[in-house]
């Protein structure tokens, strides 16, 4: 059996960057801070990433890849009824948030509150991520609501979820998530 390999400097930088973006925000996090927190020389940062913006794109891609795993396990699970798929998605995210003591929300709305003013490239990347997420919800919602309503409901549902996560971070409490899930249960057909 082969021992797991140690994370590379690049991996350490990306993991640390995600944590610092969650804690401090994109604008308040400098590349020097990321390198120092990762215990990696600043030169290694510049060897792996051409800019903070390029770095943020990699951090976002890694984050979205983790979310995609949850989407696959929940929203794309054909063994679950459509309404249960949606609930399972939010349940999975809630468990992860609880493990973080409600202090870490979602990187997507976190970046979306800052990045568009500073980076058109990040704004475009976030728009694509949001479109992909909306599409995953739309596919499920088309099975339980009128097809013409599914796109709008998916977009509103995702926007409400992101707002819930921002409020959760402010309150450092699972109460906004519990409220969201109660209302979701009343909105979706059984």
Key features of this structure:
190 residues; mainly alpha; Tetracycline Repressor, domain 2; 9 helices; 72% helix
State the major sheet: none
CATH superfamily of the domain at 57-187: Tetracycline Repressor, domain 2
Number of strands: 0
CATH class descriptor name of the domain at 57-187: Mainly Alpha
Radius of gyration of CA atoms, rounded to a whole number: 18 Å
Q: How many helices does DSSP assign?
A: 9
Helix content: over 70%
Estimate the mean pLDDT confidence.
Answer: 92
Give me the CATH fold name of the domain at 57-187: Tetracycline Repressor, domain 2
Broad shape: elongated
* CATH architecture annotation of the domain at 57-187: Orthogonal Bundle
Strand content: under 5%
Describe the structure.
This protein has 190 residues and is an all-alpha fold. The protein has a domain at 57-187: Tetracycline Repressor, domain 2 (Orthogonal Bundle). Helices cover 72% and strands 0% of the residues. The chain is elongated.
Task: Describe what is shown at a glance.
The chain is mainly α. It has helices at residues 9-24, 31-37, 42-48, 52-73, 82-99, 107-112, 120-141, 147-171, 175-187. The radius of gyration is 18 Å and the shape is elongated.
Blueprint of the fold:
Layout: H1 9-24, H2 31-37, H3 42-48, H4 52-73, H5 82-99, H6 107-112, H7 120-141, H8 147-171, H9 175-187
Helix pairs in contact: 1-2, 1-4, 4-7, 7-8, 8-9
